[in-house]
Amino acid sequence: MVRWFRRLALLLLGLILVFAILAWWLLRASLPQLDGEVVLGDLSAPVTIQRDALGVVTIDAANETDAMRALGYVHAQERYFEMDLMRRTAAGELSELFGPIALETDKKHRMHRMRARVMQNLDRIAGDKLPQLQAYTDGVHAGLFALDVRPWPYLLLRAKPEPWQMVDSALVGFAMYFDLQDAQNTRELALIKIRPHLPPALFALLARDGTSWDAPLFGEPRGDAQLPEAALVDLRDLPAPPRDGVQALASKGTPGSNNFAVSGELTPDGRAIVADDMHLGLRAPNIWFRARLRYRDPAAPGGRTDVQGFTLPGLPAVIVGSNGHVAWGFTNGYVDNSDAGVPCVKAHDSCLEAQSENARIDIERILVRGSPPLDLHIPEFQPLQWPGTRSAIPITQTPPGDIWVANLWSAYSPDAISLDLARTATMRSVDNVLGSPLIGLPAQNFVIADRTGRIAWMISGNVPTHVPGCDRYALALLGQPRPVLNEVRDIKAKGASLPSIGAGQQSTHPDPTEAVREGEGCEGRPMTAAETPMLADPDSHRLWTANNRTLDGEALQKVGDGGYALGARAKQIRDDLFAKDKLTERDLLAIQLDDRAVFLERWWKLLVHQAAVSRTPALAALSDAASDWTGRASTGSVAYRVVRAWRLAVHARIADGLTAPAQAALGKDFVMPDLPQLEGVVWPLLRQRPQHLLSRRYDSWDALLEDAAKEVHDELASQGPLSARTWGERNTADICHPLANAIPLVGRRMLCMPADQLPGDTAMPRVQGPRFGASERMVVSPGHEEDGIIHMPGGQSGHFLSPFWGAGHDDWVHGRPTPFLPGKAEHTLRLTP
């Protein structure tokens, strides 16, 4: 019997070993070929693909079309699964791959019908780059099918990769719209909903658009709020919800970036320098892919293109980088990209029947792996006078009541995505760029420098026009039958709430619908080159943006406020730039890595002072724990973690009090709006402590501050002694492959970057969180790329057995300068016709 058990055990061990060898072979077989020669059809001439020790790719080709074919080949071999996720995210097709777990995400995204929009506008999207887009698509096909085994994630999912199509590249571009903009217009709709239930002076506090931390390129800081007197607002006399907990603060996370530049006047040898670090969700592999493309091109200076930087797998272009003549970088613009409109005021069916000429119901079928398909019914309407668009607009309901809201999102424009972005490869100078602004991407702050030492900034991308004082809902009403318009007027006459621009600007025209017809505004079209805000050769020789308000006055009213970020980060960058008379690439990198807690300094002082005055237990405990204040978001700092958490808890209580009347009126329908400029209200409240603006939950401001401290103390103390609750413990990297949790026991060990403790935070230049932060860092002067610096988390390859998995990540973590130019070639692959 023992002998049989031994035989069975050996047999089982042998089967496990065979399975392990087979699995290992399959995984290895899905690695790309790095050396040798491969035949790639339709090339006009041989192409060379080199990789350095970090996996950075250099492509040498005869022309742009061949270069894009080779880039598609490389992208597919290294990142096909990630490309697939991006196109599926934009199109709402993740459930076909992952099953019901992705269904809710698909519902939210499919209602925008992005695949249908792309197919309708593909010729416009591609423009004269259609041959390059086709070549890129063919290259992706060739790269995918040249792998001996399909990419390893599909082995794990037991699925086959769907072929790549030209429309999929545009969908990758639209995935960035979903990442960078609020497709649901959540902030504006939340403000619209609460406005009727708050006194005007109280709503103005919540909708405030600036603070003393503002650092715009144009105009002056708004300063902190002037608090209204009790005669205008007294929270003690206004309704409040039951005392059953404080409403959580809303936050969009502020995806965006830093970018800044100095002109040749501020550098030792007259070179201009651009720094750029784009803040996005972090994953392994990184969202970007480093590449250098060299080919002959009559449109380029000297007839030859040499462009390098960061590509986005799925798109045939270098997104951020330098071409030797111009270097450029982006930050998210936070202009007003969405406007709520009211096409219907009756029940769904009767509303669509009333405007049948302009409305329809589309049915989108969502395929769900392992489950029956789901048919999603999407009511849409077509505003007759939205110039240049053939796209219908989906309708969503805003409860309570029978008002149906259509959200006019800039992504619906036929110009939302275009391959004009590829023209960055041949840009020659600041004047060349400003003369033809890029429009085929989400609205961005575009900072550029050229090799003559000049710098410039502009709002680039798909920026919808706005006209000050125009009631935005009127645009949605264009083309509606007169009965619908009359019913809207009746509703407005009765004082009901209808959506309007941003914080609630109102048209002075007696009939907003007629105002639009008469040309008062609300066109909704992308801005032209002549209308685009820009600034070239600033007197200070410095430029800076960090998702903050850059504009003022009429220019700001034209682009609108899309919920731009608190200005503290931009102000710190600006002040760093002014701290020196001469700057080099290393100096700009030091600004990118600046983790000084300038913004929280006054909050630390307030905590210490309040603890000494009130002598209450929670504040005293936090003050003691924060006694080691170093003024930095360093990993070993307990003080930073405590002060940061206390500030957020105080903000939550004040926001809860200021919105209490709306909470009482709306009940479960209340949504806390994102309030990025709330600091400009909170600070004067804490300095003046007016009783009439104190939340009814508290008898005094001291009680509010102690309650916030108690929440922080209890949460941190539940994890152990306060003295051990460092910022690094809270801010530990969790940068993983999307499938890391799908493999039991070893998935996170194999598919995650090291759990490094990260310095930095969102209110300072060095933006770093567990899963959010600088998706790249770049400092470069055009014409001096050999002195440039570059960082990228997560590595180049999407295969965890690749030598390039996580390559360069440790330099990103520790801020060690990595050369911008690719290093010595370690591998060479030759593609032949």
What can be said about this structure in brief?
With 833 residues, the chain is α+β, with helices and mostly antiparallel strands.
Strand content: 15-25%
Biggest β-sheet: count, sense, barrel? 11 strands, mixed
Rg computed from alpha carbons, rounded to a whole number of angstroms = 28 Å
Q: Got a strand count?
A: 22
* Strand order in space, largest sheet: 1-22-2-3-6-7-8-9-15-16-17
- SS element count, helices: 27
The separation of the N and C termini measures: 65 Å
Estimated helix fraction: 25-40%
Structural class, please? alpha+beta
Taken from the alpha-carbon principal axes, the silhouette is: globular
Mean pLDDT: 87
* Low-confidence segments: 345-350, 352-356, 384-390, 469-523
Describe the fold and architecture:
The chain is of the alpha+beta class and 833 residues long. 35% of the residues lie in helices and 15% in strands. The chain has 27 helices and 22 strands. Strands 1-22-2-3-6-7-8-9-15-16-17 form an 11-stranded mixed beta sheet. Strands 4, 5, 18, 19, 20 and 21 form a 6-stranded antiparallel beta sheet that branches. The chain has a 5-stranded antiparallel beta sheet with strand order 10-14-13-12-11. Helix 5 (114-126) crosses helix 8 (166-180) and helix 21 (638-658) packs across helix 24 (701-717). The protein starts with a helix and ends with a strand.
